[in-house]
Amino acid sequence: MPSDRITCDWFLTNIIPERDYAKATVDMYNTRIKQLRASFENTLIEEVSVKNLSDFLETFSARSSLQIRQVATDIFKVAISRGLRPVGDNPAEATLKRKYKKTRKRLSLEEYKRIRFHAPAWMKNAMDLALLTLQRREDISKMKFEDITCM
């Protein structure tokens, strides 16, 4: 599957760095590309059909399926832009998006206290700060003492 390998490699070296993705997103792209390559290793990118891709996506959970579909859509866009598929022929876009809703469960106060009891000092501070300010993890991790102002 040389055209697929070339397309995926080109995507990873040229497109991903331009997008300035977080490390977790880059890792997700790498994982999903490996899965696509493993499944379609004997199929040229020009020969992948909507049916092939749809059958492949059905073997995954809704969340994984959505991630793979997103990566495949990007890969096929690159293949189209490099002349490996006709314009408008993106089989990933033709597949149905599966429904996925993140489920979140709030901690009870007792659960919070048990976790906090075993946490190191820096984590206790971060947990207390998050609870008091209602900021996201990312915001808490970026806070500095210089950010504190007195009124």
Count of strand segments: 0
Shape annotation = elongated
State the distance separating the first and last CA atoms.
Answer: 65 Å
Mean pLDDT: 88
Structural class: mainly alpha
The ordered string of helix (H) and strand (E) elements is: HHHHHHHH
User: Largest sheet at a glance?
Assistant: none
Content of β-strand? under 5%
- Total helical elements: 8
Helix content, binned percent: 55-70%
Low-confidence spans: pLDDT under 50, at least 5 residues? none
Can you characterise this structure?
The chain has 151 residues and is an all-alpha fold. The model has no long low-confidence stretch (mean pLDDT 88). The longest helix is centred in the middle third of the chain and has 20 residues, at 62-81. It is elongated, with a radius of gyration of 22 Å. It is 64% helix and 0% strand.
Give descriptors for this structure.
mainly alpha; 151 residues; 8 helices; 64% helix
Task: Tell me the layout of helices and strands.
Elements: H1 2-19, H2 23-39, H3 50-57, H4 62-81, H5 91-94, H6 109-118, H7 121-133, H8 137-142
Helix pairs in contact: 1-2, 1-4, 2-4
